[in-house]
Amino acid sequence: MTQKTLEAIKYKRGDLQVLDQLRLPFETVYEAVPNTVQGHHVIKTMKVRGAPAIAIVAALSLAVELNALLTTSPTTLDTNDKVATFVNEKLEYLKTSRPTAVNLFEASERLSNLVRDNGDKSGPELASIVITEAEEMLIKDVQDNKNIGKFGCEFILANANSDSVRVLTHCNTGSLATAGWGTALGIVRDLNLSGKLDHCYCTETRPYNQGSRLTAYELVYENIPSTLICDSMASALLKLKNVKAIIVGADRVAANGDTANKIGTYQLAITAAYHNVMFIVAAPLTTIDMKTLSGDAIVIEERAGVEVTSTKGRTATVEVAAPGIGVWNPAFDVVPASLITAIVTNKGVITKNKGEDFFRIDEFIKNNQ
Ligand SMILES: CSC[C@@H](O)[C@@H](O)C(=O)COP(=O)(O)O
Description:
By secondary structure, this protein is of the alpha/beta class. 40% of the residues lie in helices and 17% in strands. The chain contains 11 helices and 16 strands.
């Protein structure tokens, strides 16, 4: 059965449009992204957000820029060297948009390696190879998410000891955060399609409200039985509502399984452990960063204090804090591997060995190439 999901990224060769997520859930407005300057802008300002979507929009913004130059200014791309320099400079620039989600850095490295490995091609040929690779990222991400949904749904049902489950999710990990379907929210979709989802709770996810604005929007859009809670209600929910699993996405998973995700994820993992509730991280393998050995080395983005002192409503942004108060606004936190039950990837589910408090992700990758 196919199910229509929201589309954060609309692309055909030479034309990239992104859904402006700052205007959701009240207005559906697409914005053209004709080049990397605009790509950088929509990522930095969070018109597009979510680890996979950030990487795909960055790569496609480069693809549309290259595509346009091939016709409007062919001499700028007429040698291999010119294209290689152009692509690498643009990738370095795009990487400065947001620091925590590794997918952007992984995509950049992949495109850069492609350029290095195609030193024998003409300029236009090399540009075309880069464009095609960026386009494939968009297609592959949806398939990866479908696999995550299936694996995660099976794992949760196999371990829940009940016929239908209630789950809690945090931030937005759905179609809006990816090329389609979603990671953690993809699992929720699969649970719902299998008829085994009793209810999905979602947090508001202050300060940016990805939960109340975006996840709630996706849940309502698809008629998934769901309820919104404030972030501060999570422990009470686990105590009183028989939730079987908390399912979250990831911005970067370190080699030992420590996971950076939206601020508030860490406290959810602590309360899940206390209440003996499964804590599931859902992410494609592109979100795993084997070069980062543990969560301590993950750079956490800090954003402007105004996101905490104000809230964006339907018609205006309103101040909600006493003027003059100091603000700390880390956008992400790190969940230690010891608190994570399983990491659900597009290649399968990674669990810990008995008695160990870290994941052997290197072994999993070796066995699932
Ligand atoms: C599939 S999205 C996974 C994560 O990127 C998501 O949970 C998250 O933390 C997004 O943060 P954001 O700041 O909205 O980009």
